[in-house]
Amino acid sequence: MRIGILSLLQESNTFVSGTTTLQHFEDDLLLEGESVRTALSGAHHEVGGFLAGLEQQGLSAVPLFAARALPYGAMDAATFSELMSRMFQQVALAGPLDGYLVAPHGATVSASYPDVDGYWLARLRAEVGSLIPIIGTLDLHANLSPMMVDATDALIAYRSNPHIDQFDRGLEAAELMARSLKGEIQPVQRAMFPPFVMNIERQATAESPCLELYRVAERLRQRPGVLSTSILQGFPYADVAEMGSAVIAVTDQDESLAVEIAAELSGALWNERTQFTPTALDIDSCLNEIKHLQGRVCLLDMGDNVGGGSPADSTHLAHALVRCSIPKAFICLFDPVAVSVADEAGVGAELTLSMGGATDALHGDPLVARIRVEGLYEGQFSEDEARHGGIVNFDQGKSAVVTIASGLTVMLTSKRIVPWSLGQFVCCGLDPREFNVLVAKGVNSPLAAYASLCSYFVRVNTPGVTSSNLSGFDYQWRRRPMFPFEPTMLWQA
Fold first, then answer.
1. Per the count of CB atoms within 10 A, which of 99, 119, 185, 361 is most buried?
2. In Å, how far are 292, 373, 394, 477 from 411, measured between CA atoms?
């Protein structure tokens, strides 16, 4: 039996002024046919899990299409059209298949279609018919839609944030596909959509209150007849009607059980809604707090969470670290112009340099300081361990490392980079253990890489397009009423 593989992964922050273009996908992943297998076989990625799982199950994988772009703004209409054209051209060329393993993100938005994932899954269903199984994975930040659910036989969300289980979820989906084709099971899928959005600050699955919710999901997963349970935490920075948290239950031929499980899980989520109130401190409070900590500290720059689509050049924390003369501190800023200036000056040069703060006023003014150019690097590196996003190969472009007399080391990159691997330090001649304070532009995703290094993680409520203060965003399309925006509302599963 032949199983097609399709993947489209991009998290769209609609509050970002820029748009995601085809170039963003070409800079990351834009693959067709066998090139999908070549690039992702063995990767810490759901498609890597699909490929390995199908081989284990004795099924033939037919890689069709895989695209991924770093989180940023909604994709423009032309990019959406081009991706759909390429995807469904591959579907047509493959001819009749016995099933499809799919990997949508679940929070992809285009200027022309707000529910991109629902669109292409529904289109796939319409083209292959109702009898062909479509089983897939979802990023746990998916803004699940009824269209996604109706178009598929089973969807399985990642269970870890940071996302280090993507490969395992791919294996799980492949196993469900094999059992379905053998006639051992007949998946029935039901979802519920409590009117609630989970603040991203409280989305770490190994920490309360998520820890307890995922224990409930695991307990329900062990019930006879249950094939899968999923919690979709949601992505609050996509202003679409589907924005919010949701749950999925998949059972074997038992619709009433699927509804029961989904109701119990969504009820548990709703009952704990007040526990997800953000607690992050402002910048000055955080810097005062870390003065009393013994051990290496990671400051999580929530407002400039690159994995949530932010520009990666926010300077709010950089200014504060310089102002307070925090010794042995590190920050990374996206600034290709500053890299070019440092490159022209050369290693060892001392000059006044403007760094970061180029996107807009929201993310801070440029940091202008007297610096020394410590090193210039190409900025490519790889990651052997399973880290958030399943990415193996990274490219931050031409990079410069500069120091400021106050004690701050700044890594300047010519491409936006997510802090998901300590390889970023090594490729630029740095040892992260030499720093007392490390700034990571993320909220939960850096934890997998930085946990072995840092004794403390402090989430900092910085301004930006990924701020934890959701009340500061001008939502036009979200559901109303919705908790926590309408805190007194009532709902029952």
1. 99
2. 26, 10, 15, 38
Residue 193 is which amino acid?
F
Residue reference for tokens 């330090």: 425
Report pLDDT for 279.
87
The tokens for 464 are: 């930006």
Q: Is the pLDDT of residue 386 over 70?
A: no
Q: DSSP assignment, residue 316? A: H
Cβ(316)–Cβ(244) under 8 Å?
no
Residues composing the chain: 493
- Please write the tens of the pLDDT for every residue from 51-65: 999 999 999 999 999
Residue 62 DSSP SS3: strand
Q: Report the side by side order of strands in the sheet with 99-104.
A: 29-32, 60-68, 2-9, 99-104, 134-138, 154-157
CB atoms within 10 A of CB 346: 9
pLDDT tens track for 354-382: 999 999 989 999 999 999 999 999 999 88
DSSP 177-190: HHHHHTTS--EEEE
- Report the DSSP beta bridge partners of residue 457: 298
| Residue 408 DSSP SS3 | strand
Question: At 118, phi and psi to the nearest 5?
Answer: -60, -40
pTM: 0.95
Token pair recorded at residue 47? 């498609």
Domains of the chain with bracketed CATH? 2-276 (3.40.50.2300), 283-468 (no CATH)
Write down the H helix ranges in 427-475: 447-450
Contact status, residue 106 vs residue 232, Cβ threshold 8 Å: yes
pLDDT, residue 385, reads 76
Q: Which residue in 178, 157, 377 sits closest to 269, CA to CA?
A: 157
Which candidate, 33, 9, 185, 179, places its Cα nearest to that of 103? 9
Mean pLDDT within 440-460: 92
Residue 112 · residue 3 · CB < 8 Å:
no
Place of tokens 């397009």: 465
Q: For position 388, what pLDDT does the model report?
A: 67
